[in-house]
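Exercise 7.
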Amino acid sequence: MNDTLESLRRKMTRAGELLSVVRTMKALAAASIGQYERAMRSLGDYSRTVEMGLSIACRDRTIPPPTLNHSTQERIGAIAYGTDQGLTGQFNETLADFAVQFLATIPGSKTVWAMSERVGAHFEDAGLPITGSFPPPHAITSISSHIGQILNRLEPLLRAEQVTTLYLFHNAPQPGAIYKPVLQRLLPFDQAWLNSLWQAPWPTRNQPEALLGSHVTRQALLTEYLFVSLFRACAESLASENAARLAAMQRAEKNIGEMQDNLTHAFHRLRQDSIDAELFDVSAGFEALKE
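Solution. The predicted structure, written as tokens, is:
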């Protein structure tokens, strides 16, 4: 079907409206990335404080640190952050494939908590049933309540040693790339990491002491350690999600710009053809009157 001038005008108008929407979504994604990056940076000092507290609470090496690794049979717990929002490309697929391949190399029973329905569906397709699912937060202000729900569900399982090893999977922003999937073993504590905490000098001359007993202090700091780790993972996942959306909007903006150029050229060509046809008719009419 051949385009007319009016149909080309309508297409150009719709392309301009779509470009306006894409640019708005692009600006929102860019602003969200900065917000989540600031949240990640703000965790630095608090995370260091929690680590220093753990170094004191676990310095009595005659008492095992809360590694939760006493069972003969490993019970693997995995938390995976995905997204239920669109325009993110292979965000969920990339993470799920990475996590499934890693978990396949570990013996023991698997318990998976999916932080989005879509990423949970990919785990189920791979043969890993989902034990629990939590909707991911969509704003920086809702991350804390989101993590509180996870810890309320997780802590009884850790105390009962129904989960002996806990892994965390999420996408993280990367320089030179949009994002890549990463993993962190939350529990049991890495022995090399504990040794580095024990060997690190205390910043002041006053040596701290654990109040309320080492066990109570360790449990409280363990909760804070999990909170900080989950908060950072959630913020990095949301920053990666918006980075993927920003890249998609940049591609869409480029494609719409090329489409607008093509429509403009087609419009001008068709308009010139119609002008040429009208001039030919006038010229032909004039020649007929002369004869």
